[in-house]
What we know:
Low-confidence stretches: 200-205
Order of helices and strands: EEHEEEHHEEEEEHEEEHEHEEEHH
Largest sheet: 6 strands, antiparallel
Structural class: alpha+beta
CATH topology of the largest domain: Rossmann fold
Number of domains: 2
Radius of gyration: 23 Å
CATH class of the largest domain: Alpha Beta
Number of helices: 8
Number of strands: 17
Strand content: 25-35%
CATH superfamily of the largest domain: P-loop containing nucleotide triphosphate hydrolases
Mean pLDDT: 84
Amino acid sequence: MKMRILRIRISGLSVYKSDIEIDFYASQRNSEESKQELIQVNKSIYTNPVIELAGLNGAGKTITLKLIVFILSMLNGNSINRYRSFAQDVKRYMDGESFTTEVWYALENKIWYLKTEIGVGEDLDHPDETRLVILGEERWAYTKTTTGKTAWLDSSDYLIQNKRSDEADTMYLPADVSINGAAVRERTHRIQLVSDIQSTDNNLGMFIKEYPVELIQFLDPNIERLTFEQQKGAHGQARLKFVNRKEIVMNEYREVFDYLSSGTIKGLRIFSYALQILKNGGYLVVDELENHFNLEIVKTLVGFFQDPQINIGRGTLIFSTHYPELMDVLTRNDAVYILKNTGGITAEKASVKLKRNDGIKKSEAFVNDYFEGTAPDYDSYMLLKELIKSL
Length: 391
């Protein structure tokens, strides 16, 4: 059994107004019908197959997604400096102080709690720079044999299992690698993590040998076939066949961008990633999912993760958006987080204000400022309008 993330908490970063929590578990009432969509962890706990971060521009969606990827990668035993640009972003918001991450997760029929304090230390490879280091860490095991939906959050029911120290078992551990790495030495325990954050505005994605015809024609019905052939050296040959036209042979992969739309190229990349996660399980993280896509393509992708007959690996899609309409694609209010940035970033589940799934639409609540701070600022709008009129 691979790790199933239940909750993430981040404390001590100046970019956030207070501690931020992202729940992966389904906190609302779970009817028998809704359980078909959810991912079952044990008899009492279910997680959402899709989690959405929604907010206006500058609300903090991207940095929050980066931190989620940062933490999931750390749980796998990877260096916390592995994503160099992410680490630089994190250091920018530390203000010279340490910060703490807390993760609750399920593994091998047990629930675990990992608390990690992260600071800044010397970068041995780059003497003029600093790097992130782990200052302290503890891993606890939940002692109860049965768990209610939220009973596992009671800290008194945990016993410490591992602690970062100078003892023989951890003294040779690199300063930027979590003790959790020892718990996931088995490949079957590790999280399969695919992040598309760095590709938000860059369509130079992964090319595979041949894309399924069904996927290509879903994205662009005018394409009959698209294949890539790896050649010796750094470049490969691409072949593109449009319906009722001669095949186009390209000696460089990037020539494909001259013929395909940005939406088609992004679709090939994202859906290829999704196929891995839908089949094998894990987490797919995408920033600004709606970029280059129409609403129906987004609905299709989200629907695949919500369908247990397709999502056989019980994978999870985590994405951000600033389009309110995409909030209504998700059936559950506890799977949508509203991010705001007023003197610091906050993240709140839509279910806090919208107690039931059947009333006001989430998109309407967002636009009409029901969540407070999600409607575009009227005074700023009027100032911009006056500026344009004056020009």
